[in-house]
């Protein structure tokens, strides 16, 4: 047996108009955890889809050698039969089925064509034990958290006698303790002889778990590093990923905070279905011109619900409270009113709520501001074209033209389109909900610069983020939210992660529910 | 990801290769079908198929389906369906006949009455669909029964004849005493000239702004082909009896609704709401209001189609318009509408309706039995959607079958989005998502 379990050589993959991978080489040593890092659009996921047979052999150029013999996977079934299992970022689980059923989905334990429930549940229990999942195998998958769902995916992979496990952003949706559990499980599987490839944006976690790290950039393999040499640091990785020195993660900025112009007082929102559940409880905040205000909170604290309820009652029921801008009371009964009042809300869920993926950039850029480009209901197509082209260049959207479909852009560029479409409505206050989620380092920097540009024009920004360093790096002032309450605010100068975390986990008098279903 | 600029070789071959199949596939298919029947007819029966008479007949016999298809396209693009149009058509047609014959209203008042009645019925259905959020499938299924029942009631299950100018609407060649032959030719030539003029103007503006949508050769080919078709069509109608009145009505509707769909805020909102309702809503689109008006328009067009059917038969019958909704829906899908909404063009719906009409006419001329014709039309609908699926995959570089997980770089296929939504439902995040979907405080 050779030392390398996997060798990929000269992998080249083209999409119409785009060279996604160009001569990528990747060697993975048996019994190691190998990390694949790079900016979004660097080609990591494409490479893994080739390896797992999502792109059939022949659809790309280059050679793959797995476990000592050439591999020519035509589909996922082929690769899984050989022992390569990929776990995608979006989990492929059926919520309405039990954990045990999900583990053996497509691979059912049966006797003579009839499912043997004893074997299904029994073997599932054993596999669940192995991954440290201590639930009843008959529990429905939709009833367990995302962290546990990841474990179910891994148990499912183990049921297929996995030799090489590929995880695409496994911890993106997990909290810190779930992430740590998962990484520990990977280390444990390594002891048991399972090789893993992990794609991740979280460099700290990569450095802690990986034995070797390969950096991809612009569809090319840049370098592979051994972590035990000790010379690899986050800075070193970032430099290799972006191909230039990134002095700081956050661009320098001299804040010019003006007068408070936007205020919300005693904002209360109830759950739309469970009408007696308070999701946001008497929240009061304010934003000054030229100020970036952060909103920190754990999952379920009610940050997004708060923001969306303010933005034209897009979420929740029985909303009460007062919003004022420059002392004038705002009417925010629906989204058009919110837009007219000078608000904009860039959603945390770009793909579902933020963009029309099947439409081109022009449609996406101009949708909220279409009224400005039309007279008596008739759209001026020339204006639409020129405005879109202007926004595309101004926001540095990397796309061949304004006719490109939004769905074909990388996450960072999609986010720039979302920002562009809202800036075009000339809002006074921009609410940015997780503006850099799932975006690579380089594009994050550009987004930060765009945010700075906006506040320098005297606009206010309310920024929701789950990444505390980002809030500390960007915001002039940070509110913390816990179980629907605003539990405090900290000026930038006094802000620390510890203090924020304390406020975010503060138990409030009414006692909120952490878990929203 | 490295972006490779698409090569712009100014050759004819690459121009042909770059033709957007989704947009022009059905026009090409329509032309090919006509050529096929021409060849078959000449070899089997030693007769021409492409004659001014046959072409005129295709328009006359399918006019009401084309009118319905225009409205249906808007409905489908907006992400809904309307099963009631056949019954609404019958009811409005019946009422127009009653207004004309029993109440002795002038013909134009009877026509406006039918259209208005259709719009009112549209309001009724639109209310339930847009504001109460009952699925359109259910509301219009109910409407299909309700308005068929009402038709039987007002007609007492009998046929009601119509006379005079009213009947001319469906098949006449003289409007208010004017022979329409010469106007047909004049408008055809003027139209082609105007088309070229506007095409050149918009092309120049795009080039100036540095955002030309296609290569020079592709653009030239396209513009020349469309102008040629316009001239040929005008001459064909001219050499028979001119464009019939219903042809003018159709022409007007196509121009009007193409304009509405492409160039008005309302039209763009119809697409945005159908393509991604949540994103549209959060962008300030009044999706409920948009849907409401789409169904009102569909109702009004059904009313107009009712008039045409009645006029064509010279009578309102209780069974009029039976299963027309299916023809209209089929025309939309043949014409490139996406099953999930958000995609489709007015001209596509008309081309789709014409494809069906030409197939019917062609097979009838060849003496093929109606049962066989049904089977073939069914296969054509399936093939059209299959072609659409294939074409989408061609654009994104995947196989024919939808992938298990998205294979496109950023993801654009509907299949992928649907698959993802299914997956999301299994994660705990579904709490937030479904809460926002189910209860819509946006009004």
From TrEMBL, chain A:
Please indicate if the UniProt record lists Nucleotide-binding as a keyword: yes
Question: Which keywords label this protein?
Answer: ATP-binding, Cell membrane, Membrane, Nucleotide-binding, Repeat, Sugar transport, Translocase, Transport
Task: Tell me the leader sequence span.
Answer: none
MF-aspect GO terms = ATP binding
Which InterPro entries does this UniProt record tie to the protein?
AAA+_ATPase, ABC_carbohydrate_import_ATPase, ABC_transporter-like_ATP-bd, ABC_transporter-like_CS, L-arabinose_ABC_transporter, P-loop_NTPase
Is Manganese tagged as a keyword? no
Q: Where is the ABC transporter domain?
A: 6-243, 262-508
Q: Which SMART domains match?
A: AAA (SM00382)
In terms of domain of life, where is this protein from? Answer: Bacteria
Question: Which residue stretches, if any, does this entry annotate as coiled coil?
Answer: none
Q: Which NCBIfam families match?
A: GguA
| Protein name as catalogued | Sugar ABC transporter ATP-binding protein
TrEMBL record, chain B:
**Its job:** Part of the binding-protein-dependent transport system for D-xylose. Probably responsible for the translocation of the substrate across the membrane.
What name has this protein been given in UniProt?
Xylose transport system permease protein XylH
The record's listing under Pfam families reads: BPD_transp_2
Which parts of the chain span the membrane according to its record? Answer: 21-39, 59-76, 83-101, 107-127, 134-155, 175-198, 219-237, 243-261, 291-313, 333-359, 366-387
Spell out the residue ranges making up region: Disordered.
Answer: 400-443
Q: Which organism is it from?
A: Glycomyces niveus
Superkingdom of origin organism = Bacteria
User: Where is it mainly found?
Assistant: membrane
Q: What is the lineage of its organism?
A: Bacteria, Bacillati, Actinomycetota, Actinomycetes, Glycomycetales
Enumerate the PANTHER family for this protein. Answer: ABC TRANSPORTER PERMEASE PROTEIN YPHD-RELATED-RELATED (PTHR32196), XYLOSE TRANSPORT SYSTEM PERMEASE PROTEIN XYLH (PTHR32196:SF32)
């Amino acid at each position: 047996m050779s030392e390398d379990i996997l060798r990929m050589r000269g992998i080249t993959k083209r999409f119409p108009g785009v060279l996604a991978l160009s001569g990528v080489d990747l060697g993975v040593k048996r019994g190691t955890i190998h990390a694949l890092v790079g900016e979004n659009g660097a080609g990591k996921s494409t490479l893994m889809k080739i390896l797992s047979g999502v792109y059939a052999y022949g659809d790309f150029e280059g050679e793959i050698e797995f476990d000592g013999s050439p591999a020519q996977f035509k589909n996922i079934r082929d690769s899984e039969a050989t022992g390569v299992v990929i776990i995608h970022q979006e989990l492929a689980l059926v919520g309405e089925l039990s954990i045990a059923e999900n583990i053996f989905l497509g691979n059912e334990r049966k006797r003579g064509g009839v499912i043997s429930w004893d074997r299904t549940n029994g073997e599932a229990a054993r596999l669940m034990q192995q991954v440290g999942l201590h639930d009843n195998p008959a529990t429905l998958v939709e009833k367990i958290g995302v962290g546990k769902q990841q474990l179910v995916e891994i148990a499912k992979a183990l049921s297929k006698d996995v030799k090489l496990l590929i995880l695409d952003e496994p911890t993106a949706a997990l909290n810190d303790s779930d992430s740590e559990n998962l990484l520990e499980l990977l280390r444990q599987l390594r002891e048991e002889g399972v090789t893993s490839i992990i794609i991740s944006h979280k460099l700290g976690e990569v450095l802690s778990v990986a034995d070797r790290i390969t950096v991809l950039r612009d569809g090319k393999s840049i370098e592979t590093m051994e972590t035990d040499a000790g010379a690899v640091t986050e800075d070193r990785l970032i430099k290799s990923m972006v191909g230039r020195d990134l002095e700081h993660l956050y661009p320098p900025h001299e804040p010019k905070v003006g007068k408070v112009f936007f205020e919300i007082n005693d904002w209360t929102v109830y759950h739309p279905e469970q009408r007696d559940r308070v999701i946001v409880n008497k929240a009061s905040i304010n934003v000054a011109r030229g100020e970036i205000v952060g909103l920190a909170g754990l999952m379920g604290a009610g940050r997004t619900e708060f923001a969306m309820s303010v933005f034209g009652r897009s979420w929740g029921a029985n909303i009460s409270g007062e919003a004022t801008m420059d002392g004038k009371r705002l009417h925010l009964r629906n989204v058009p009113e919110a837009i007219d009042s000078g608000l904009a809300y860039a959603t945390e869920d770009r793909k579902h709520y933020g963009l029309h993926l099947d439409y081109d950039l022009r449609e996406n850029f101009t949708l909220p501001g279409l009224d400005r480009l039309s007279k008596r209901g008739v759209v001026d197509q020339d204006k639409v074209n020129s405005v879109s082209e202007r926004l595309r260049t101004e926001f540095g959207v990397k796309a061949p033209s304004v006719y490109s479909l939004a769905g074909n852009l990388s996450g960072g560029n999609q986010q720039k389109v979302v920002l562009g479409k809202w800036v075009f409505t000339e809002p006074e206050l921009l609410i940015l909900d997780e503006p850099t989620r799932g975006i690579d380092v380089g594009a994050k920097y550009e987004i930060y610069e765009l945010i700075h540009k906006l506040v320098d024009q005297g606009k206010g920004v309310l920024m929701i983020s789950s990444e505390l360093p980002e809030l500390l790096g960007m915001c002039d002032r940070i509110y913390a939210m816990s179980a629907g309450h605003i539990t405090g605010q900290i000026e930038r100068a006094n802000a620390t992660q510890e203090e924020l975390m304390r406020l975010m986990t503060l138990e409030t008098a009414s006692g909120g529910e952490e878990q929203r279903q | 990801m490295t972006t490779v600029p698409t090569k712009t070789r100014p050759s004819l071959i690459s121009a042909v290769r770059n033709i957007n199949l989704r947009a022009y596939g059905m026009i090409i298919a329509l032309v090919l079908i006509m050529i096929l029947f021409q060849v078959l007819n000449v070899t089997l029966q030693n007769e021409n198929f492409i004659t001014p008479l046959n072409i005129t007949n295709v328009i006359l016999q399918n006019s009401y389906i084309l009118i319905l298809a225009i409205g249906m396209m808007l409905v489908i693009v907006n992400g809904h369906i309307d099963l009631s149009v056949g019954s609404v058509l019958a009811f409005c047609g019946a009422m127009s006949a009653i207004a004309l014959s029993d109440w002795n209203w002038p013909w134009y008042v009877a026509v406006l009455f039918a259209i208005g009645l259709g719009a009112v019925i549209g309001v009724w259905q639109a209310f339930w669909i847009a504001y109460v959020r009952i699925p359109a499938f259910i509301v219009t299924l109910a409407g299909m029964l309700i308005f068929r029942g009402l038709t039987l009631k007002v007609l007492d299950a009998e046929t009601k004849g119509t006379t005079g100018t009213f009947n001319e609407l469906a098949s006449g060649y003289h409007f208010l005493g004017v022979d329409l032959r010469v106007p047909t030719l004049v408008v055809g030539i003027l139209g082609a000239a105007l088309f070229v003029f506007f095409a050149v103007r918009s092309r120049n503006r795009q080039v100036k702004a540095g955002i030309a949508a296609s290569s020079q050769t592709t653009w030239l080919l396209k513009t020349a082909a469309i102008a040629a078709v316009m001239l040929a069509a005008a001459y064909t109608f001219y050499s028979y009896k001119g464009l019939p009145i219903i042809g003018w009505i159709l022409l007007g509707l196509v121009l009007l609704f193409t304009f509405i769909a492409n160039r008005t805020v309302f039209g763009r909102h119809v697409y945005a709401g159908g393509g991604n309702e949540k994103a549209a809503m959060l962008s300030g689109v009044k999706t409920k209001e948009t849907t409401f008006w789409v169904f009102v328009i569909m109702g009004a067009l059904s009313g107009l189609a009712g008039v045409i059917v009645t006029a064509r038969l010279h009578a309102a019958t209780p069974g009029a318009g039976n299963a027309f909704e299916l023809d209209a829906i089929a025309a939309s899908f043949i014409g490139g509408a996406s099953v999930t909404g958000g995609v489709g063009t007015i001209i596509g719906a008309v081309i789709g309706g014409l494809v069906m009409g030409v197939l019917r006419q062609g097979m009838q001329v060849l003496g093929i039995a109606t049962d066989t014709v049904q089977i073939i039309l069914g296969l054509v609908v399936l093939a059209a959607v299959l072609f659409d699926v294939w074409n989408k995959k061609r654009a994104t570089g995947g196989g024919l079958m939808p992938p298990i997980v998205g294979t496109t770089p950023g993801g654009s296929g509907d299949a992928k989005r649907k698959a993802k939504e299914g997956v999301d439902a299994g994660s705990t995040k579904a709490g937030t998502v479904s809460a926002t979907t189910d209860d819509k405080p946006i009004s």
